[in-house]
Amino acid sequence: MLEKDFIEQANNLPQSFLNAMISDKNIVIYGGGAACLWYVEWLRGHGIEPLCIIDSDLRQKGSYIDSVEIKSMDDVEREFGLYNLCVIIGSPKYKREISEILKKWKNVPVYSFETEIYCNFIKDVKMYRKYLLEHYDELDDVYQSLADEKSRETLDSILKGRITGNQDYFSNVMTLNQYFPDDIISLDENETIIEVGANDGSTLIELLDRLNRKYKRIYCFEPDVKCISIIREKIEKEKDDRIIFIPKGAGNKEETLYFKTDTEKGASRVVESGDYDYFIQVTSIDKEISEPISFIKMDIEGMELEALKGAEKTIKAYKPKLAICVYHNQEDIIDIPRYIKSLVPTYKMYIRHHNYGAAETVLYCV
């Protein structure tokens, strides 16, 4: 189990980077993939504008990511020189490959650390350390309740990664087959499934392939009608009335939630009804579904605990296999396992991590 001394004292790499920065440094990000956006946002959040983005794919040269131009290494060296340059690796998945490429710039400092978690889930590392220390007994309770050593190692490594920003803690425990790890989740032709947060249908398609189209029924909760239309197009050839769409969000009760869009971050937050950009209708699993359920998957941007509370009767009655995301809120990795265990004490609980960065941590219960 993670020691208290580590929680209190372990060095945070992003903070060390900020402490080391000299104001006239030219900071560039290497890696023009999706993860790059978090590095741009994190730097700007600390008053730093990246000079440019470097990408090995020369076809990207001259294009922009969030108003930051993509250039080649040769362009950067020619236009800006290397004297005041430093590089942040902006693609955790290709950290080793990028590090090898950057050896060409022998005296240019290279930094690698996690940023997405500090943009989305943990705004203040000091407060997160305090939270873990204040809830250390509950955290230890979750740790002790996990069913295998791999889960305990994964939990330990995830927490270290969150505290330090060191991507290695995440990549070292990263596994494939998100939501369907072969060593935990077994599905057959008798499944009645609930997918909460169907999004663009990618998980549904994978599910259909894994089941070879042999199952009883699949319920998809998705409040965005545009997403439902996309999914319908993807599965049009299925002509399958066993897939049932519920165009609502899943929560603890029937209600309307109002959201305000943050255009800079491309994210939304719940607000009061007076000032909003859009709204969704929310219902509960217990209200919508009355038949026996064998598997529930949830990925709903931090609303998982409320949706689980709205599925209390279903979970107690049928003890379905569960695959629940536990990374959207800093409390989830403690609160969600403890809540599920209170409903079904006999569940075996596992934690797996499915990303080279901080996102995509999933709790499995069987």
TrEMBL record:
What are the Methyltransferase FkbM domain coordinates in residue numbering?
195-341
> Pfam families, from UniProt?
Methyltransf_21
What processes in GO biological process is this protein linked to? Answer: methylation
Q: What molecular function terms (GO) are annotated for this protein?
A: methyltransferase activity
SUPFAM superfamilies, per the entry? S-adenosyl-L-methionine-dependent methyltransferases
From which domain of life does this come? Bacteria
Task: Tell me which UniProt keywords the record has, alphabetically.
Answer: Methyltransferase, Transferase
Family matches, as InterPro entries? FkbM_mtfrase, SAM-dependent_MTase, SAM-dependent_MTases_sf
Q: Does the keyword Aminoacyl-tRNA synthetase apply?
A: no
Q: What is this protein called?
A: Methyltransferase, FkbM family
Q: Which organism is it from?
A: Selenomonas ruminantium
